[in-house]
Design goal:
With about 120 residues, the chain is mostly helical. Helices cover about 70% and strands about 0% of the residues. The chain is globular and about 50 Å long. It starts with a helix and ends with a helix. The model has no long low-confidence stretch (mean pLDDT about 85).
Length: about 120
């Protein structure tokens, strides 16, 4: 678990230091490259980079779904890490079955709304 935490911190440091808007070594979305449509994950790297700099509004602009779901994911992995440190074992915390479905519906709705919103406004 320390390796996972170290990799996460290294990734966050990379995003903090090298903005995706300024550096082109970050991978491009293959779905967008092929279809020209934004996938639910498009803008996630830029959103996380903006969050690391404390720019919540900019992060919401790049990818609102990632911006809103990231605190939940961080809480989940922090809880898992704490269990690993305290009990010296890796245990995936059980989450309610409905939460996976709710997250999937949220992400799919986000993708649809993000595609049709520019046509409306």
């Amino acid at each position: 678990m320390n390796g996972v935490a170290a990799a996460g911190l290294a990734g966050a440091t990379l995003l903090y230091r090298f903005s995706p808007q300024e550096y082109s070594f970050y991978p491009r979305c293959p779905i967008y490259a092929v279809t020209g449509h934004l996938c639910p994950g498009c803008g996630a790297t830029r959103a996380i980079a903006e969050l690391l700099h404390g720019h919540v509004a900019a992060a919401l602009h790049f990818n609102a779904a990632v911006t809103l779901l990231l605190p939940v994911l961080l809480w989940y992995f922090a809880r898992m890490y704490w269990t690993a440190v305290r009990e010296d074992r890796i245990a995936w915390s059980q989450v309610p079955e409905w939460s996976w479905r709710a997250a999937l519906v949220f992400v799919l709705l986000f993708a649809v709304v993000r595609e049709i919103a520019p046509a409306i406004f």
